[in-house]
Amino acid sequence: MENDNKPIYKRPIDEYLPCNEYKGGEGFIKFFREEDKRYYFAYNSPSGKTYLRSQGYQNEPGRDNGIDSVIRNAPLDERWFDNYDEEEKYYYYGLKAGNRQEIARSCRYSTKEEMLKDYEWVRGEESTIGKGAKEIDGVWWSAAALRRKQEETAAQNAKEEPQPTSKPIDDYLPCEEYSGPEGFYKFFNEDQGEYYFALNDDKGKTYLRSEGYKSEAARNNGVNSVINNAPIDNRWVTGTVEDKYHYYSLKAANHQEIARSCYYKNKDEMLADLAWVRGEKSIIGKGSKMVDGVLMSAFMLASKPEPEPVEEVEPTPAPIPEPEPEPEKHEPVAAAPIVETAEKGGCSKWLWWLIPIILLLLICYFFCRGCDDKVVKTPVAVKKTVEKVTEHAKEVVQSSKEMAKETAEKVLKPGDTFVLEGLHFVYNKAIITKESREVLQKAIATLKSHPNLKVEIQGHTDNRGNDAYNKKLSQKRANTIRNSLIKAGIASSRLTAVGYGESKPIATNSTAEGRAKNRRIEFKILEK
Length: 528
Hints:
Elements (H helix, E strand, L loop, with lengths): L26 E7 L4 E7 L5 E4 L6 H14 L6 E6 L4 E7 L5 E4 L6 H12 L10 E3 L2 E3 L1 H15 L25 E7 L4 E7 L5 E4 L6 H14 L6 E6 L3 E7 L5 E4 L6 H11 L11 E3 L2 E3 L1 H6 L31 H10 L3 H21 L4 H4 L1 H34 L5 E3 L17 H13 L4 E7 L6 H21 L7 E7 L10 H7 L1 E8 L1
Parallel strand pairs: 18-19
Antiparallel strand pairs: 1-2, 2-3, 4-5, 5-6, 7-8, 9-10, 10-11, 12-13, 13-14, 15-16, 17-20, 18-20
Helix pairs in contact: 7-10, 8-10
């Protein structure tokens, strides 16, 4: 390094101060020198060593422009130069602007090797003005510092159990990649270009994860292999990775691994999850069963509500009314029976007394055919009488239909709600059971017979599970009913689906019977 006691102001073009004048903190330092009333800057390493120094500027803006010029030109190789002063016998390097004017210069070096070492550092990845340097939030970062920061951030964000690097498990993704819906979650990973599956609980926690498959068909075979092998005790194994991370896995009969758990630091935690995935609450655990194409755990099967037995009721014969009743004197009939009768045609209750009258008239007709001319004219009168009675009967039937419709409209008013009794869903799913289809058909018929009705389809659950899950499930179930009604021809503008979860019970949740009542679909009349 230069001898700082040696005078260097022999030539007017050299306005640099001795190197010890530029010592200071890391990065760019700025200072004002009283002796010559000039402004200077230097670029120093973290240890305070000076790598670049400026000549004197007459004012602060000039000095600050000099620093900006260093930052702009430092990434350009052609702006750097190194030299040897023959007169003073020292080596140095410097930085020039586009106009070839020198912006800054190094200290003096007695050997070329020492000079080149610092020359490479100031231009390298450890320097905040070197290649790859970048300004972030007003602070300049070297390429090396940026890389270290990114590595530290990645390490903080990475899960505690790192992915092992041994070959048999290279295809497993990090555990967070498998988080998703309850049950078997299937997905395609764009980065790997492969198909994966996972077994998750209702909170999205992953209990089993697969390696990558080249096709959907192969991935689906993997899922089926899990279902087929999970009930067999000796297909489950446990192990460790890197002698510190615990896991369990499921193997096929050929000892090939089908799926593996996430990694655990704590062995007891791993064993607890293994017990769960093989237990009665898991859809692949002991006692699980496929029902109507849906995997159900032993717990689900035990909790599934049995369909209520339907009592066979003998039809009650309709009473025969007195002949020629006065329609206006009839007592109002309850809304539900009238709606049902109107939907079936409404004629049967008047037919009983019309038949005897028609038979009587026919007897009179045949009896009078053998009489004299005066009597022969009787059939014409009889015919007119029959026509008159028939017309009257039609009027009575029409009046009955209008009464039914009018009474129903009075009963169904905005704000009223009614439960679709007998409508059940597959446990924890938004799929109605086969037994419930008839109930849905009746609801469709009712809405078609009342084309002005607008309803809110309300989904309700019991209080098992958390609030968010129950609300989501009830919304899915309400959507299922709405979609079914739309497919049946009910205008979508008449239907609104809302899931209320467990927030509106109609019975206690402390008994199985009460919970069964709370799991329901209700219709609320919005407009009629």
